[in-house]
Every structure is written in C-alpha cells, then in structure tokens.
Amino acid sequence: MSELSSLEAAAWSELRTIFDPEIPVNIADLGLIYGCEVAPLADGEYRVSIRMTLTAPGCSMADVLKSEVERKLRALSGVLEVGVEVVFDPPWTPGRMSEAAKLELGLDMHSTPDTPLPILKPER
Predict the structure, then answer these.
(1) CB 49 within 8 A of CB 33
(2) What count of other Cβ atoms lies within 10 Å of the Cβ of residue 56?
C-alpha cells in the first residue's frame, strides 16, 4: 500500500471517530463525507482535503463538526494542512448512510435512497 493510500485509510479511520452530537453514528457512516483526498506537499508532508455535508443546512453543530475534523486529521503523522469544505449540493439523504448506520438507528434497510427521515408528530 502506498503512503498516500495508507494516509487516506488513516484519515477515514479518524473520520469514523467523529460523531454527530445529535445522532449516535459517526459522520463517515452517516454519509456526511462526500470526499477525502490526500495530496503530497513539499518535504514529504501532505494535505488532506475533505468535502462534507450536514444532515440539514441549518445544523447548529456545523462549526463543531468542521473543527473536530480539522483537529483530528491534522494530528495524523505527515499531515501539514487540512481543508474542510462544507457543501449542501447534493443534499444529504438517509440513503447515503452505511448499512451499519441504518441498523444502529433502526431504519428500514430497503427504503429508497432518497426517502427522507420520518417526521414524528406528537399524539394529542
């Protein structure tokens, strides 16, 4: 495995240690990470670029999640720079979650990829 591939695998492992504070599933398995690229810099160091989204555009935890991604990836050996871009196109849907995440949340494994999460209304 090349150094680039090893570092990308390490980055994905770190991303799986970051949990959405409102959902008990890590951001990688939630499908919030749209891209993870590792590029060499001078002197044998690397830049990790992350393209990610949130479950909703108005998510109050956006800055917290972005900062945690930056902090954890910057701590990886050989990483000098980390860039995190938060995007909303394409919008996140439950279909982006891994099967493990769907099981953890008790969602139907056979729902269509673009089915929105159910909105529960309190009984009156």
Answers:
(1) no
(2) 12
Domain limits at 62? Answer: 3-90
Q: What is the pTM of this model?
A: 0.83
* pLDDT above 70 coverage of the chain, percent: 86
Residue 72 confidence (pLDDT): 98
To the nearest whole percent, how much of the chain has pLDDT over 90?
Answer: 61
The H or E element containing residue 38 is: strand 33-40
Query: Is residue 64 situated within a structural domain?
Result: yes
Task: Classify strands 33-40 and 46-52 as parallel, antiparallel or unpaired.
Answer: antiparallel
Q: How many other CB atoms sit within 10 Å of the CB of residue 83?
A: 13
> Count of domains in the chain?
1
